[in-house]
Amino acid sequence: DDRRLVCELLADVGACASMSQRLRLITARLLGAPYLTHPLVGSATEPEVFTVTLQGFDCVTLVETALALAWADDPEAFLALLRQVRYRHGELAWQQRLHYATDWLHYHVRHGSLSEVACSRVMQRLTRRLDVLPGFPPHTATWQYFPTEALPAVSPCVVDGDIIFFVSMRQGLDVFHLGMLFCAPESVLLRHAARSRGQVVEQELANFCAANTMPGFLIARPCETPHYP
User: Fold this and answer.
1) Which of these, 1, 224, 35, 20, lies nearest to 113 by C-alpha position?
2) Would you tell me how many other CB atoms lie within 10 Å of the CB of residue 186?
3) pLDDT (tens digit, 0 to 9) for every residue of the chain, 229 residues total?
């Protein structure tokens, strides 16, 4: 089932002229897929398994899968790209998985596969020690983010397929959720794997932000062509 769906999606997006168009089509096809609480296999004490499925997602695996599909030309390329998106240098190991969202973001920005959407006039800086993952070495991370009240000013700058990261209020954690953004005539829509709704859903971004307490958010834009070894 997974391989058939991958082939169908790759065939459907083959005529799309841009990354934005491919991501809009792919994520639309994945709406309604079940939410999976622990979709990946591996931990500090359990061997890592390269897990690939389109039958369900959490918020991270939905974004990873959509990116790999949008960049791929065939099923083999999809698998290779998904490894590169999920792991440092594509190395299959729990220690190399990009567990924290800001690490994931900055790694792919450095490699030229994503670019950050920024506006220095309104952005704020945050430094936090990340230490909530058992068995993973704690480290300090710094990132810039848009405060939540900047959403009306930032929304007109959104491009289909932009990735949004919602900053956590919890000490020891950087981001509590992420998804992809798409433009609608009167609003910006968030497509994401929602634990509370049990599936991949689409909702207005402003409504999600109003319903969740957060300092703010980061936005990243996928490049047309990934840059991996």
Assistant:
1) 224
2) 6
3) 899 999 999 999 998 999 999 999 999 999 999 999 999 999 999 999 999 999 999 999 999 999 999 999 999 999 999 999 999 999 999 999 999 999 999 999 999 999 999 977 899 999 999 999 999 999 999 999 999 999 999 999 999 999 999 999 999 999 999 999 999 999 999 999 999 999 999 999 999 999 999 999 999 999 999 988 7
Tokens read off for 54: 């389109």
What pTM was estimated for this model as a whole? 0.97
- Dig out the tokens for 106 from the structure: 């900055």
| Cα–Cα–Cα angle for 65, 113, 147, rounded to 5 degrees | 85
